[in-house]
Amino acid sequence: MSQLLDNLNPEQLAAVTLPPQHALILAGAGSGKTRVLTTRIAWLIQNGFCSAQGILAVTFTNKAAKEMLTRLSAMFPINTRGMWIGTFHGLCNRFLRAHHREAGLPQLFQILDSGDQLASIKRLLKTLNVDDEKFPPRELQHFINGQKEAGIRPAAVEAWDDYTRRRVELYMEYEAQCQREAVVDFPELLLRSYELLERNEPIRRHYQARFRHILVDEFQDTNVLQYRWLKLLAGNGDEGCACLFCVGDDDQSIYRFRGAEIGNMRDFERDFKVPAVIRLEQNYRSHGNILDAANALISNNSKRLGKSLWTDRGAGEPIRVYEAFTDSDEARFIVEEVQSLVREGISRSDIALLYRSNAQSRVLEHQLFSSGVAYRVYGGLRFFERQEVKHALAYLRLIANPDDDTAFTRVVNFPTRGIGARSLEALQDAARTWNTPLYQTVPHLSGKPGTSLAQFVGLIERLRQETAALPLHEMVDHVIEMSGLRTHYKNEKEGQERLENLDELINAAANFNAEVGSGERPADMGTDTGTVLAEFLAHASLEAGDHQADAGTEAVQLMTVHAAKGLEFDVVFLSGLEEGLFPHENSILESDGLEEERRLMYVAVTRARQRLYLSFTQSRMLHGQVRYNLRSRFLEEIPEALTKWLTPPNPRRSFVSEPSPRYYNPGSSKPAAPSMPPPPPQKSRDLGGLSIGQAVSHIRFGEGVIVAAEGSGSDARVQVKFAESGAKWLMLAVAKLTPIG
Ligand code: ATP
Ligand code: MG
């Protein structure tokens, strides 16, 4: 027991051993917030303040939840079964499965990740004959999610104009479609749980009585609804109210764009009359120079709750700054440096390459790949979001829930089985008329469409019967085989990687099954085939939506700064420190946006333990265009004494040296940007009437946007970023690309 508290400083100790009460731990990066939260759980249980079942802890990612469970079991023998530790989405999923009836859902409801949700919205617009130029699906998705995240159902939306009224109708139609198909999107998981708790008094009382301690990590990034959900679970101050223990850092609030509400911290203090706000000021992660740089940087923000951080680890190495000519040059420098670090004995997994936007990873990946350095990219397209994996999952989803029209449409003709667009339209018309799911409509369809569709339904029925008694991984294997997916990718020229991913899916199922077998899964979840399959599918959807990294493997870690939150690495390379990129151009013109970018930069810098590299380039190819950027203002905000330039500093390219209207920032007291020579015009190419940025459609890959081009005449190739299947280089003369929009 004393061991548990041995390695804590006095403030951490005070936080961990607070008597049962509400508390807010407000502290900077690397000060041990997550460690305090985990230790507090162990301490509460060990001292009999609460049983393991009485704890509810919310983490930022599934990975963090797992780590917390592992750390807890390492601290003392504890049965982590049945402990409610997870992300908001994960916990709500579990809650809704346990009370699906009361929540108005079938037991085996499926989860739509954000890609599925978009597909579902597109399908809805088509069914209703709505012009998707007037109501772009992505915008509608954003609108719907925004309402849900604020806890607002269609009937409660205040709509003053026709356009909004129409959007609200579509929101309502979308809800009806989801309900019909027994699917639930991410924000719905939370909203449904919230509504259920709010309306169902016995259930509410049950959970309020059960959870005595609710602990929340990364509290600064909770949104309005999440906070209300926590409040409801905690109870509102009657006797028997649970203790809320929240840890956070206002300087690391980076999800404002998704509705995160920093005001939650102040509300929490007020709503719960929090008696204890504890500050932790010692940073255990980073050397002094890195920490000083982070402190100096964030001091440029005006909206802060204010705190300081110190370390006794010594100044350590200076921060290395590198100016490259081009992005390839930058990538080459980074990879060479990585290689020499690895030669010195640093493990690849202790090295992270961070960037502001996913699009920046390509050139780094290319360089790593050609140099034979093992790497792993997080964010972007994660495993469960890949096309082939989603196809396989769609078959499984249909087996679990034939009413899932999103899954039905995805694979009814994949691999191709001669079901044309006409047949599908006939089916959709009939389904609309009878108000039945597509699957159930098939038997009522006559003629040729009826026959081919009936064969598909027959296939799914057969798969369900054949796999009913199989363990999960054999079921997945069987489905991949019998659906024809394996043969399809075997015959595809570049299908090797896709086949490997399908095998990986079988492995994932085997691991999942092993967890069930070992009793690692919560006791309140079933173990019959149907339930395990539904749980596995939920797991896949939740993982796909999880934008944080898994820091484990022996590979260099690549990720966006957002995904790096909460993690730490010995060596961090932060590339692309250019105006327009970081800070991002969308945020540069308003001071709130700029402050959020600066917090993001603060998160990036504070990920490094020992060594930090900052780099920028004079020109960069991004989204198919060469951009000439100034170096980021954030570089200027780091005191010179902390840095060491690996290339001669070039004052002419500094952000603060000359005024320019281009990046004039009305909200900032900083001098404005220097004037820039206009970028040289891009060489115009003969792209057969197409241009970079043009939306196109391809017979096999679907819709996409041209992002790059090379060669000319009959050799011209374009790179198209397809919505479904990612980026591909295509020969213009061969690929039939039809311009759209
Ligand atoms: P972030 O704001 O980035 O999420 P955090 O405040 O949650 O950071 P932790 O991740 O808990 O910080 O801790 C940072 C590092 O410092 C970890 O490696 C942790 O093990 C270590 N650490 C925390 N407290 C102590 C301590 N008292 N003694 C030694 N190491 C510590
Ligand atoms: Mg943390």
TrEMBL record:
It is an enzyme of class 5 (isomerase). It comes from the Bacteria. ATP binds at A27, G28, A29, G30, S31, G32, K33, T34. This is DNA 3'-5' helicase. It holds the Pfam family PcrA_UvrD_tudor. Its EC number is 5.6.2.4. SUPFAM superfamilies: P-loop containing nucleoside triphosphate hydrolases (SSF52540). PROSITE patterns: UVRD_HELICASE_ATP_BIND (PS51198), UVRD_HELICASE_CTER (PS51217). InterPro entries: DExx_box_DNA_helicase_dom_sf, DNA_helicase_UvrD-like_C, DNA_helicase_UvrD/REP, P-loop_NTPase, UvrD-like_ATP-bd. Keywords: ATP-binding, DNA-binding, Helicase, Hydrolase, Isomerase, Nucleotide-binding. It comes from Zoogloea oryzae. Residues 656-689 are annotated as: Disordered. One of its GO terms (molecular function) is helicase activity. Residues 288-566 form the UvrD-like helicase C-terminal domain.
